[in-house]
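Margin note from the TA: students keep mixing up input and output lines. Inputs are the sequences; the output is the structure of the whole complex. Example:
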Amino acid sequence: MIPYGKQDIIQADIDAVVDVLQNQFLTQGTQVPAFEKAISEYCNVEYCIAVNSGTSALHVACLALDIGEGDLVWTTPITFVASANCARYCGADIDFVDIDPVTRNLSITQLAEKLEIAEKANRLPKALVCVHYAGQSCDMQAINQLGQRYGFKIIEDASHALGAKYQNKLVGNCQYSDCTVFSFHPVKPITTAEGGALVTNNSALYQKATLHAKHGVTRDDSLLEPQYRSVADGDWYYQQIELGYNYRLSDIHAALGLSQLQRIDTYIQRRLHVAERYQHAFEAQSTTLPQLTLPQLSVDSGWHLYVVELPFQLRKLAFDYFRTHKIGVNVHYIPVHLQPYYQKLGFKQGDFPHAESFYAGAITLPIHPNLTLPEQEKVISCMRDFLTSVSHQLNA
Ligand SMILES: Cc1ncc(COP(=O)(O)O)c(C=O)c1O
């Protein structure tokens, strides 16, 4: 099966991991700080904390922004469930902003309209989790302007978008947001197996996120609560000042990430080449065959996913056709508000029509740095054959 996404592991990655295994520290050694430094330098951002998943990074982002019971967080329905769950972990309510059918990211127009209504109802969100779907950045400047006007915090969920650019700068510089989170799951732009990171230019936010990711325990003098100290305390002394979590990344994972990060730009280039090749092949056939809506060909996307839209009655047929031909297509995503957990909170079919109609036709074709030319050709010809076969069916 040709997978839709896959990690690239070379001997240097293996050597980096083996090195850690042969050293003293499997965790809390030198590799995590080195990886954090490398990520912040790459993104041109002040602070980075590496954690054990993108989900953990989203959770500590919410905690560091003091999101809790009674608060409201908004995100897009076209994302992985973690973008919404992070607010629920903190006891906050969640709502969604429908997508723009062209960018597939949350719609700025819909966001502005929803904010206007929310202001009148006195129920503005405390934070917005904006997801750079498939590796293409949201319009962060526009979101930031709305954030300033209505006073909400901005978390960029860049799980798909390490190495992507917005306004010619790398995603993660946090120019227009409070913080950005990344995921390093194996299908993502680089991998640590499981892993994630939060980056920010805000030192207080960084400090809080770090505390929450490390049991709420600190040895930092400026944070220690003096009334709990005793003269008998020595260098071993630490305090737990919050109810934190163990979200630490291990040195084994960080070493893999550090090694992978050196190839990020090559990965993005290779993904772009695959996207351009698909785009060229599919554009050429779209006049005679059933309509195929392609993603925007943006040189700044990280091309984490390549998602085409088919007329909705063809999507399941296409999915089965590709899978039968050993092409591991996938679907990203079932709109989050339609998940049973969220329907039980009151969301229902019809709430976010653009997201729902996008989902009905979406199919993710394979794209990853090591997708070979014959594999790309196989995907292209399989799509061509499928569309030809259904066009006969449709015209019959
Ligand atoms: C948009 C988005 N946000 C968050 C996550 C969660 O990341 P992780 O799997 O590292 O917890 C994912 C992972 O699939 C994702 O795609």
